[in-house]
């Protein structure tokens, strides 16, 4: 996978981020852009991403939040190596640490102090019978071998009290996400993400505060496309370009 002809380089955030990633495996797209846009880390804070892949979300966070420290956790060693290359490529190696580790082993196995922000785009499926087997290069990104609970458990331990958790996931798993996070987190903010205004949400962005007590907020939806063509809506396009953020 790490041979030169198996790697492509893409530009994100209107060219502000360069990302080397597998040509035939999982590649960062809209979900990574939305996750990064929802991280409002302040200068001096630390953001940890569980399952960072090659850094599609992590380095967009770095570009949007230039005075933050970044930690990426990635199980697949060749992909973690790509993330380290991308840190150097984007000039943020001095404030980025990429750890080759398995989310299923828990945050404590990393021997790190809890962070200000913990974020993730967890694999969308944890039941191999729920979908046709994905291509081998995409399996780790699509299948959560240890279930969604392993990911939420990692995030809850990875963030300090009062710190923020942000996830993007399938809309039909919203109840599961809230149920898994609720024992230790609150102050939920939910952003439904709709492919089209007249169709159901396919994704949700969920923000939560560790030990938060504020009432849940259901935000106005984000619509990605109009029905008249395949172009992104102005708001979605501004997010992809890095000209707009998502306030959770």
What does this structure look like?
With 248 residues, this protein is an alpha/beta fold. Strands 3, 4, 5, 6, 7, 8, 9, 10 and 11 form a nine-stranded mixed sheet that branches. Helix 2 links the parallel strand 3 and strand 4. The longest helix has 13 residues. The termini are far apart.
Please provide a brief summary of the model.
This protein is α/β, with parallel strands linked by helices and 248 residues long. The protein has 7 helices and 11 strands.
How are the SSEs placed, and which strands pair?
Layout: E1 7-12, E2 17-22, H1 30-37, E3 46-50, H2 58-64, E4 69-74, H3 77-89, E5 96-100, E6 115-120, H4 136-142, H5 148-158, E7 159-170, H6 174-181, E8 185-196, E9 203-210, E10 217-218, E11 222-225, H7 234-241
Parallel strand pairs: 3-4, 3-6, 4-5, 6-7, 8-10, 8-11
Antiparallel strand pairs: 1-2, 7-9, 8-9
Helix pairs in contact: 1-2, 5-6
């Amino acid at each position: 996978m790490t041979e030169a002809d198996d790697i492509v380089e893409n530009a994100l955030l209107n060219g502000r981020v360069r990302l080397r990633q597998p040509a035939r495996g999982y590649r960062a797209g809209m979900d990574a852009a939305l996750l990064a846009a929802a991280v409002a880390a302040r200068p001096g804070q630390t953001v940890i991403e569980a399952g960072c892949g090659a850094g599609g979300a992590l380095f967009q966070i770095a570009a949007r939040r230039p005075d933050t420290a970044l930690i990426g956790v990635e199980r697949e060693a060749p992909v973690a190596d790509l993330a380290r290359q991308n840190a150097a490529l984007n000039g943020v190696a001095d404030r980025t640490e990429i750890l080759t580790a398995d989310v299923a082993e828990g945050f404590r196995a990393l021997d790190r102090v809890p962070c200000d922000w913990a974020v993730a785009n967890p694999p969308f499926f944890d039941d191999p019978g729920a979908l046709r087997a994905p291509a081998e290069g995409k399996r780790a990104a699509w299948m959560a071998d240890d279930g969604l609970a392993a990911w939420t458990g990692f995030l809850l331990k990875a963030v300090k009290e009062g710190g923020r958790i942000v996830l993007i996931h399938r809309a039909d798993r919203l109840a599961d996400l809230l149920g898994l996070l609720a024992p230790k987190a609150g102050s939920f903010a939910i952003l439904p993400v709709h492919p089209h205004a007249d169709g159901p949400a396919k994704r949700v962005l969920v923000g939560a505060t560790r030990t938060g007590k504020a009432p849940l907020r259901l935000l106005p939806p984000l619509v990605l496309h109009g029905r008249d063509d395949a172009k992104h809506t102005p708001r979605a396009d501004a997010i992809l370009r890095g000209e707009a953020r998502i306030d959770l």
